[in-house]
């Protein structure tokens, strides 16, 4: 049963969600204002981090027994990264860490950073209206999970994790404070689906840099029966649903926004191993883009980015050190 206080939090979250139909007029006016600004050409080096969330299939709490993505999707991803000479960050969930240690070791031995992605796709922030899982971690639980799993990762690969991404991209200030106390230098939990500005932010204590998945903060209005705003961000599904040209246009739009606002040009892309294998069936239409075809889409996208930009692939830890304000 949801407690009254949490129910109220969910209601307020739904009201304040930037995608809410109530905000469509404001979002549309912002869209018109932004669309008048011409795209700025990017002449500087662009840092690029292709991040991978290592979790159960589809990231669903009721799929904790399903890890086909880990078992079959990691190898082709590592092949692509080797071909493209890309080093990046894999955010590993505790259930993957303990259940598939050899795969974790193969990722580390290939030269990639291992970050942390929680224990079982729980909630590391406040209640959200769209989350069916209402098991929100307490402060003591967050510390317990971090202490245990930092040690597990260090015992397995000989290094402590330095980067973090919360499940669902939901984290609050309490989480950020604990991450900083635990020695993390990068957090990538910013809500890209809210169109969070693609700008690095430094924590109050100065030790942690927040770098979200790269999103275009200019909303797209969807005139469905219930009009609403959506924000496009760099993720695997963009390659399938918008095509390579659409994904490149999104990347250019994000970089143009950064140049216009004096933000160091960089791109962070979100991906999951389960997006690169054929499942036979999926939990619903929102996951129907997953499949082996995404392997060639990703390979083509990285090649196209390298032709278009002076691209330098980096891990999230390196990105935090390079673009941190």
Describe this structure in words.
The structure is a single chain. Helix 9 (243-260) packs across helix 10. Helix 3 links the parallel strand 1 (46-54) and strand 2. The model has no long low-confidence stretch (mean pLDDT 92). The protein contains eleven helices and eleven strands. It has one domain (4-19, 44-323): Glycoside hydrolase/deacetylase (TIM Barrel, Alpha-Beta Barrel), CATH 3.20.20.370. It is an alpha/beta fold. Strands 1, 2, 3, 10 and 11 form a five-stranded parallel beta sheet that branches. A four-stranded mixed beta sheet has the order 4-5-7-6. A two-stranded antiparallel ribbon has the order 8-9.
Radius of gyration: 19 Å
For CATH, the homologous superfamily is named as: Glycoside hydrolase/deacetylase
As a percent range, the share of strand residues is 5-15%
- Uncertain stretches: none
Spell out the helices and strands N to C: HHEHEHHEHEHEEEEEHHEHEH
How many domains in all? 1
**C-alpha geometry:** globular
Q: What percent of residues adopt helix (DSSP H or I)? A: 40-55%
Query: What about the largest sheet?
Result: 5 strands, parallel
CATH C-level class is Alpha Beta
Count of beta strands: 11
Q: Which structural category do the helix and sheet elements fall into?
A: alpha/beta
What CATH calls the topology is TIM Barrel
Euclidean distance between termini CA atoms: 43 Å
State the CATH architecture.
Alpha-Beta Barrel
